Amino acid sequence: MAKRKPNPDVVAARLADLTMPEGSAWALGARQSARARLEQMGLPERRDEYWKFTRPDTLVQADAPTAALFHNDEGPLWDDMDRLKVVFVDGVFDADASDDLSQEGLEIERLGDATSKDIHWAKDIYGVLETRGQTAVDRPLAALNTAFATDGIVIRVTGKVSKPVNLIYLHKSETSDVILHHCIKIEEGAEMTLLETGPAAARFNKVLEVEIADKAAFHHVRVQGRDHERRAVTGIFTRLGTESTFKSFTLTMNGVLTRNECVIELTGDDANATVAGACVGDGDDFHHDDTVFITHDAVNCESRQVFKKVLRNGATGVFQGKILVKKDAQKTDGYQISQALLLDDDSQFLAKPELEIYADDVACSHGSTTGAIDETALFYLQSRGVPKAEATDLLVLAFLAEALEEIDNETLAEGMYERLEGWLARRAS
Amino acid sequence: MLEIKDLHVKLEEEDKQILKGVNLTVEPGKVHAIMGPNGSGKSTLSYVLSGKGGYEVTGGSALLEGEELLDMEAEERAAAGLFLAFQYPVEIPGVGNMTFLRTAVNAQRKARGEDEMSAGEFLKVIRAKAKTLKIDADMLKRPVNVGFSGGEKKRNEILQMAMLEPKMCILDETDSGLDVDAMKLVSEGVNALRDEGRGFLVITHYQRLLDHIKPDVVHIMADGRIVKTGGPELAIEVENNGYADILAEVA
């Protein structure tokens, strides 16, 4: 891809009011290097190939557009589930609202505490995985994040931890503009589940770096906030060791603009990565973008991308997914499916599935479809007495099911179904 | 039970008249069969009665217990007691068979102002009914008709009929795609539902099915009309001689 010349004025305008947080030498070094990368790349512009389907303007401009607060009357998600809660209010860690961070098998610290230490394991992850993710495509907003993130959490996982860590992002200010950065290191044979819930801010830039060692496993379920006017750009950067597992699922309902990037590098043999998403969007101010880049750089690895979007009343969905299979990544099994269900003629789905394969013994499949509700199935349901609106909802949930099936934990999956049913019910009247 | 008077139907998209004045009355407790050559309008009749889109009624009426079916939505017709066993049951990936049936049963009950069936009660009833149709637990759990064999799909239709307990059942070529054993099983399922309050309209090409589901009245349909009505012997005549003689006779 031809590189355009960055516009230093745009970068300068964005950085004018940002202050680089203090930290120890390694942390400051990582931040300064990220800033240098950002200045070299420039901020995303509409003419950038990678931003062809999503306008970056409001994510890039110095002042974040405001976002009204959403009053959730559904009650907390997974209320009965034993979780370790870590609460951020408009991007600031709230110790009082959070649980005690000591948990067997986990070392959890606030980002600021970790980066102020002269020696810390996070040194090998913070900005490191993000930098690796910049090789094929520029991701300037992630570099901006590394340079200026004001808070976040770092977690080192040393054992198989069954109790999930739930990052809860509360949005209380209509003008909050938040940059959070989390680092997770899962040691050999260790395992954890990370949950992320909530809208976080009027404008949210988040990076999550996850280093998964050999035979380790990372499970991730995320529910993005339903505040209609919120904006978010998020980046997951992960590297997988031998026989390790990465599984991530995201549910998105509402939000004026969401761009979820996921950059996965399979560097150990026999590793397994799955990234899935379900999204329901209503209205012409709904724009949701899933951008995935998976690099196979080891033998006999499997990767799955499963994305489903239900769009109506002029909503827009975007999918950009790429599988890159390097020369020696033989026996790669790559699967990618992106599908949109358009409930009217005004909505649109823009998809760019890509495969780039240099190995000769691989199985990669990809598919992308856009369609309407199956009238035959609808009539079949109606002929059995199911009213049209209810039948449509049933088919919408059925369509999304393939993505939801990627969640291993039944309780977590049930929570997703409940949220979706609630969303459909609210729109029924 | 079902009273069809001078029903005229054309395709919505094109100017093609399919039904040209169908008259037919099915009394409670009776089984009527409709036979007829391909393209005579048999399936169209079943679709129009059940409320499928794509057709335009240009004249006539269809009453179910005195209520005009043609003014109702498909789901209202179902709640009023009409059931169509599809010739080609539809596969619905992602919707479990059990969820589908329970949603349907309760939607109909709700529409009729009755109490919904509890999960426990539903389970008890469906297990018993599934057993007689040799439908195992796995088939109940799987998505609706997905990966079902032809015979399994038809058995699943009869199971739905048994669960919904309609007043008027239309069976559209339920014998198509069935081997001898499957046809016997399906027919037994239908016969078990025969009672004095329920009417049946069985659409078929072949006498075979009528050996198992014995009709009271047999109609021959051709070119959008019922051209001849008689007893079970009419079906045997068709089986032996084809339609040519009958059509020549009424022409």
UniProtKB/TrEMBL annotation, chain A:
Q: Name one Pfam family in it.
A: SUFBD_core
* InterPro entries on file: Fe-S_cluster_assembly_SufBD, SUF_FeS_clus_asmbl_SufBD_core, SUF_FeS_clus_asmbl_SufBD_sf, SUF_FeS_clus_asmbl_SufD, SufBD_N
The chain positions of domain SUF system FeS cluster assembly SufBD core read: 174-399
Into which family does the record put it? Belongs to the iron-sulfur cluster assembly SufBD family.
Residues forming the SUF system FeS cluster assembly SufBD N-terminal domain are 30-161
SUPFAM superfamilies for the chain:
Stabilizer of iron transporter SufD (SSF101960)
Specify the superkingdom.
Bacteria
Protein's UniProt name: Fe-S cluster assembly protein SufD
> What gene name does this entry carry?
sufD
TrEMBL record, chain B:
Name the PANTHER family for this protein. Answer: ABC TRANSPORTER I FAMILY MEMBER 6, CHLOROPLASTIC
Query: Domain ABC transporter spans what residues?
Result: 2-248
Q: Does the keyword Nucleotide-binding apply?
A: yes
Q: Which gene encodes it?
A: sufC
Q: Which InterPro entries match?
A: AAA+_ATPase, ABC_transporter-like_ATP-bd, ABC_transporter-like_CS, FeS-cluster_ATPase_SufC, P-loop_NTPase
**Residue intervals passing through the bilayer:** none
Query: What protein family does this chain belong to?
Result: Belongs to the ABC transporter superfamily. Ycf16 family.
What CDD domains has UniProt attached to this entry? Answer: ABC_FeS_Assembly (cd03217)
Q: Which UniProt keywords apply?
A: ATP-binding, Nucleotide-binding
The top of its lineage is: Bacteria, Pseudomonadati, Pseudomonadota, Alphaproteobacteria, Rhodobacterales
User: What is the protein name for this chain?
Assistant: Fe-S cluster assembly ATPase SufC
**Keyword Transmembrane helix recorded:** no
